[in-house]
């Protein structure tokens, strides 16, 4: 095939292709081998699906409903371009009896719209808002595979891993944050065999690029002069975006900015001393010297005094995570959480905030029982030794690798004091003890 991302070349008999794909699918599910006519992108996806424990007779699960779904969608960045998706794809979906679908970066469907007949049919296989359609949940499918491989992709008929989805054909393209390049989700068109045409793949890719362009216009690349953006999660030295300038702060200045961002009303010198220093012998003179240096770094007018305060609005990643947790948008909160807050800081108030934020998010993840979110946390530097999270992950995704890791952690927990299990061959034991790795210089 000329383009491996396109499901059918022009002139291919779709009926014969379906027959070949069904035989190939049966061969894979029975023997684990992929016959040659299957496209490499599909074969790789089938293997990932099998490793994730997906079964061909499975179905998607609905994870968000009612208020949870509404609050999550309202917070999601792709909500801002849904009018564009409807304008560009809505008529095509309605006229062709197709569906327009949009998913998040974890493959969870946020919107499913279009002709009522295919919507009713799709509902019978849980292709509905709030359902998980990631590869790790339902195997090969266009929206889930598009976010998995970060490429536009078509999935035709029996290329789908789950049998009940095989009457459908779909094409999807990932949508990225224009500022960070991070995958926000995917836009998808789902319907009949006619969507296997190369034009449908080009269509969704063009729509995704249009959405990224609109997001870039809606979110200017530079902060306004009167707005401060503070990034402090997963880094020992915070980054400040103020008036279009990127400023990398020292560790002490990072601590001060985090605390002042949480207290827009300001803090007195005594309150800052108690928040920053465990050593009670530190004098106010030391703090004033730090604040004077910070004022020079920030430039004129941003740091007020009596009480010490920031004189412009501040948006911090800490506040975003807290706000999303408060509204129940757990996936959106986890997407922003880049690691523990200033992990190298020993400032008492920062330590308390770091623990409270991490505990709030991990507790929400355990309660949500979302296998992808739990896996992301468990495999991050700060979560790889988190026994409770690994137990929760093993309950919802009991793969051999997960069970083995859980057994190793439980063995370490029950080992006598002073005894350590040897690291597996080729792997050294982590030395960061739950902290994020330092930000590269």
Automatic annotation (TrEMBL):
Classify the source by domain of life: Bacteria
Q: Which organism is it from?
A: Streptomyces lutosisoli
**Sequence segments annotated as region (Disordered):** 415-441
Please list the residue ranges that the record marks as compositionally biased, kind Basic residues.
429-441
SUPFAM superfamilies, per this entry?
C-terminal effector domain of the bipartite response regulators
Protein name per UniProt: GAF domain-containing protein
Domain OmpR/PhoB-type residue range list: 244-310
Keywords tagged on the record: DNA-binding, Transcription, Transcription regulation
One of this protein's Pfam families, by short name? GAF
Q: Mind telling me which Gene3D superfamilies this protein's record contains? A: 3.30.450.40, Winged helix-like DNA-binding domain superfamily/Winged helix DNA-binding domain
Among InterPro entries, the record links this protein to:
GAF, GAF-like_dom_sf, OmpR/PhoB-type_DNA-bd, Sig_transdc_resp-reg_C-effctor, WH-like_DNA-bd_sf
Q: What SMART domains does this protein map onto? A: Trans_reg_C
């Amino acid at each position: 095939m000329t383009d491996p991302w396109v499901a059918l070349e022009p002139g291919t008999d779709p009926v014969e292709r379906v027959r070949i794909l069904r035989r190939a699918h049966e061969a894979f599910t029975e023997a684990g081998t992929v016959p040659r006519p299957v496209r490499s992108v599909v074969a790789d996806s089938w293997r990932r699906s099998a490793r994730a424990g997906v079964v061909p007779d499975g179905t998607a699960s609905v994870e968000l409903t009612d208020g949870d779904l509404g609050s999550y969608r309202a917070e999601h960045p792709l909500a801002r371009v849904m009018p564009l998706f409807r304008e560009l794809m809505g008529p095509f979906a309605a006229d062709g009896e197709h569906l327009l679908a949009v998913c998040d970066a974890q493959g969870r469907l946020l919107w499913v719209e279009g002709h009522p007949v295919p919507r009713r049919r799709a509902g019978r296989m849980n292709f509905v808002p709030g359902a998980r359609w990631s590869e790790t949940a339902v195997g090969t499918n266009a929206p889930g595979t598009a976010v998995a491989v970060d490429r536009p992709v078509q999935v035709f008929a029996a290329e789908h891993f789950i049998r009940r989805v095989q009457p459908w054909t779909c094409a999807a393209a990932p949508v990225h944050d224009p500022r960070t390049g991070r995958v926000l989700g995917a836009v998808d068109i789902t319907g009949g065999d006619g969507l296997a045409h190369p034009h449908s793949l080009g269509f969704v890719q063009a729509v995704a690029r249009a959405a990224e362009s609109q997001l870039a216009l809606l979110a200017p690349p530079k902060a306004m002069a009167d707005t401060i953006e503070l990034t402090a999660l997963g880094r020992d030295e915070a980054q400040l975006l103020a008036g279009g300038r990127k400023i990398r702060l020292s560790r002490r200045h990072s601590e001060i900015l985090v605390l002042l961002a949480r207290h827009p009303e300001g803090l007195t010198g005594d309150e800052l001393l108690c928040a920053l220093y465990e050593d009670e012998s530190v004098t106010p003179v030391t703090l004033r010297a730090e604040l004077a240096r910070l004022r020079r770094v920030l430039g004129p007018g941003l740091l007020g005094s009596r009480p010490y305060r920031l004189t412009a609005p501040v948006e911090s990643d800490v506040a975003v995570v807290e706000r999303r947790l408060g509204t129940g948008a757990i996936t959106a909160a986890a997407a922003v959480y880049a690691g523990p807050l200033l992990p190298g800081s020993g400032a008492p108030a920062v330590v308390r905030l770091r623990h409270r934020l991490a505990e709030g998010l991990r507790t929400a993840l355990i309660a949500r029982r979302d296998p992808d979110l739990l896996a992301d946390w468990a495999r991050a530097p700060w979560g790889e030794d988190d026994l409770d999270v690994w137990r929760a992950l093993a309950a919802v995704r009991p793969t051999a690798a997960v069970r083995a890791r859980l057994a190793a952690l439980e063995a370490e927990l029950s080992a006598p004091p002073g005894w350590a299990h040897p690291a597996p061959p080729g792997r050294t034991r982590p030395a960061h003890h739950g902290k994020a790795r330092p930000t590269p210089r």
